[in-house]
Known about the structure:
Helix content: 55-70%
Order of helices and strands: HHHHHHHHHHH
Radius of gyration: 26 Å
Largest sheet: none
Amino acid sequence: MKTSIERCLNDTFMKEYGLSTQVTRFNCHGLSDSKRELDKADIAIAILLLTIVLLNVAGTIYDYKSKENIKDKKYLLCFSLARNWKKLTSYNSNGDGQIEYLKGLNGIRYLGADMQLYCLGIILSVILKKKSLRKPVLASVLLLGIAAIAIHTYVRDLDPILILAPEEIKTLFWTGSTFNETYKMGHANIPSFIIGMMLGYYVYEKRKTRLQVPKNTGLRYLYWALIPLTTAVMFSGEVFYRDAPRDPLLVRVAYAALIKPIFSSLIAILLLGMIFKVESKTHY
Length: 284
């Protein structure tokens, strides 16, 4: 085994770098060779997690069977999955007296969208273990995400971007429909998230095949052009900042649905060029 590894390394390093190698130490371990014993910390964490899961189950069942405004056993209801999910995904445009003091922190609720997308990513990662499913599934979810933004903007008659007006700055993040219903909601950020997953899978596969980027001056100029193009896309929303009646609903729907995937795609291409060193003389 040692000789075979040394021969393989020599062949690789000699072709690429003109160097020879020698294996001075060799160890081989299999998964069956090492058995990990549970210690007290492992048991404590297992008990803690099991307790939380049991509380989630008990709280959810109790919440489901009890009246909606019941006040007893409120601590158990804190573990209700249904109630917490409702709070996580809802917004209040009228101002709830109980959370009036949290107005300044309302923007932090965007973390709820991150959590929803994180859960979506875990589910997709499990489904997409089979390589043949990646393209159709990711493309389908991407289109569904774009459609969700379009439908939401159309039904709720929202603005295509977050428009800041001086008279609304104070309460915008609390009462602004566009911010609360699109910017903070998980489904409105699915296109960008899926494009990020596509980029990750593409880089993973191409690195395994040691993708070689051609040394082409024209390609470099195109890559450089992405910077002003991305900047132009980023500031394209300024067309909606003008002293005029609101744009037609279909125009707002189209812009809202397409701006995020377009901008995310440009950022993904920029990252792709950095990863595979378009500007470097030697590529990965």
